[in-house]
Amino acid sequence: MSAPSRGPAGRQRVLFLQPELGRPAGGYAVAAWMLEALKGEYDVTLLSWRPVDLNAVNRLFGTRLRNGEITVRTVPGTLRRVVDGLLDDEWRFYGYCILMRWCRWLRRPDDILVSASNETDFGAPGVQYVHFPYQCRNWTSQQAPWFMRLAARVRPWRLISGFSFPAMAGNTTLVNSNWTAARVREAYGIECQTVYPPVWGPFVDTPWPSREAGFVSIGRLSEEKRFEVVINVLKMVRTQFPEVHLHIVGFSDAYTKEYCNNLRQTVRENAAWVSLEENLDRQQLHDIVGRHRYGIHGMPNEHFGIAVAEMVAAGCVVFVPDSGGQVEIVGPDPRLRYRGDVEARDRILDVLANRGTQTALRQLLAARKDLFTAERFMAHIRDVVRDHAQAVGHVR
Predict the structure, then answer these.
(1) Which residues pair with 44 in a beta bridge?
(2) pLDDT of 78 strictly over 70
(3) How high is the pLDDT of residue 93?
């Protein structure tokens, strides 16, 4: 066995594939905190499709990444502009295909290969963090007719990346929830380890009696988050508790323009009790969430739901759809889970009307906060990477 690849400080090298880090979303938070976890023990080289501003990343996610602690390499700007121009919003997928091919060219035999961008074929076994098995739609079973298998292998994205599903299945696979783990097993028949994404604080620790008797709802301002459903549920609640109000806190981008315009109009129509807070910084988000009593999430089958974990960490009593990975955040108590608008209304009304129930649910959720700390996440990531390196022979 050849000697492990060493960086300038004599440490083993990690090649970390991540197309970008500049958007305030849960998947990017996972990638940033994985880098934070690994930078102290390894010589980390980040392969990115887009340039990375580490100071901006730190402001978004609470990390402390600095130039010199990790090496950032991006694809040539000319190539990036051509691909972006030709493929529009498809750049995220094809850009990652190019990163996988680039990794094959750059990797040394004893590099530790890591990704936080779902299914990845590094050209050798690595550690992949899967938020959802998106490529299963492109998977062609080995039991399919030969011509279908051949056609699948010569698709452009496969030719660009060199992607092999059997090779991908040989990775150490991490997932964001047990619910996602079940989806990965269904898709590929591979086992996974659940490593819950991290929540970073601190949040404002406002005593319960001093908190506003209102709700917050957090997330990307896009159709699947169903903020209009949240508004409808709380509109029904207000018939009995008219003091209830709602802060929608989220970020918008070019891909959600139409939905955002419609949501802004709905907010204007309910301006007496609904407000929309767009593109806040972390401190502003923490302040708003930490001074409210309740949270509500509208997306069914959320893969994890880091917004839910943030509201729990801030001390809110949070109501979620009874599906997806988000139920693992709030736990098994049915009082916090709903199926449909009417059940959501009824669950909320029962809690608002009973101070004893509020206290019990606050205690239940407070006991779950430690499952989602950044410290717990980083320790788990370091253990996984060490174990993987030992399993494939990349030991110091």
Answers:
(1) 14, 70
(2) no
(3) 75
CATH homologous superfamily for 13-198+374-391?
Answer: Glycogen Phosphorylase B; (3.40.50.2000)
- Confidence check: pLDDT of 255 > 60: yes
Q: Which single residue is written with the structure tokens 């407000």?
A: 275
pLDDT above 90 covers what percent of the chain?
A: 63
Rounded distance, CA 4 to CA 371, Å?
Answer: 34
Would you place residue 13 in the very low, low, confident or very high pLDDT band (cuts 50, 70, 90)?
very high
The yes-or-no verdict on residue 94 having pLDDT over 90 is no
218 Cβ contact list (under 8 Å, min separation 6): 249, 250, 285, 289, 295, 297, 307, 310, 311
Cα separation values, 291 from 197, 211, 294, 316, 320, Å:
23, 5, 9, 9, 20
- Helix pair angle (341-352, 227-237), 10° resolution: 50
Q: What is the mean pLDDT of residues 62-71?
A: 91
> What is the pairing mode between strands 172-175 and 70-74?
unpaired
What does the pLDDT average to over 131-147?
A: 67
- E strands, 234-336, are 246-251, 274-278, 292-296, 317-321
Q: What are phi and psi of 130, to 5 degrees?
A: -105, 120
DSSP state of 12: B
- R_g of the chain, CA atoms, integer Å: 22
Yes or no: say if 314 and 218 are a contact pair by the CB < 8 Å rule: no
Domain covering 208-372: architecture = 3-Layer(aba) Sandwich (3.40)
How far apart CA 336 and CA 327 sit, in angstroms, is 9
* 13-198+374-391 against 208-372: fold identical: yes
Sequence-ordered strand ranges (E) for the chain: 13-17, 43-48, 70-74, 112-115, 127-130, 172-175, 193-194, 212-220, 246-251, 274-278, 292-296, 317-321, 337-338
276 vs 247: CA distance, rounded Å: 6
Domain borders along the chain are: 13-198+374-391, 208-372
- What is the rounded average pLDDT for all residues in the chain? 87
- What integer is the mean pLDDT of 296-311? 94
What is the dihedral angle through the alpha carbons of 16, 167, 377, 294, rounded to the nearest 10 degrees?
110
Per-residue pLDDT for 132 more than 70? yes
Cα→Cα distances 117→30, 34, 128, 168, 378, Å: 10, 12, 7, 12, 17
